Amino acid sequence: MNRQAEHAVEKKRPTEQTGSRAWRDRPPVVQIHGLTKMIRGKAIVNRLDLEVRAGEIFGLLGPNGA
After folding, report:
1. Which is nearest to 23 in space by CA: 47, 57, 60?
2. β 42-53/28-39 pair status
3. Burial level of 55, CB count in 10 A (0-12/13-18/19+)?
4. By the 8 A CB rule, do 53 and 26 touch?
5. Which of 7, 9, 44, 54 reaches 20 to 30 Å from 35, CA-CA?
6. Are the C-beta atoms of 29 and 55 separated by less than 8 Å?
7. Taking the chain, what is the end-to-end CA distance rounded to the nearest angstrom?
């Protein structure tokens, strides 16, 4: 293995604690409280509360997968 390849596969040592508590201790980068979205008089989102922390990956899927 050449020097560049050795460098590329080097593992980084963890610098932060791991586990579910580590994520809860981080401050949220996105905060939504009580969001309601109406379309033609119908609530499609009703009082949504959401927090996303740095490093999390989050997505929303509707009934049709969009």
Report:
1. 57
2. antiparallel
3. exposed
4. yes
5. 54
6. no
7. 45
Residue 34's closest CA among 43, 23, 25? 43
Query: Which one-letter DSSP state was computed for residue 61?
Result: -
Please check whether residue 54 is in contact with residue 46, taking contact to mean a CB–CB distance below 8 angstroms.
no
34/4 Cα distance (integer angstroms): 51
For the stretch 6-50, pLDDT in tens is: 555 555 555 555 556 676 788 899 999 999 999 999 998 999 999
CB within 8 Å of 46: residues ≥ 6 apart: 36
Structure tokens at 17: 């604690």
Residue ranges of the domains in the chain?
28-55
Would you state the pLDDT for residue 31? 95
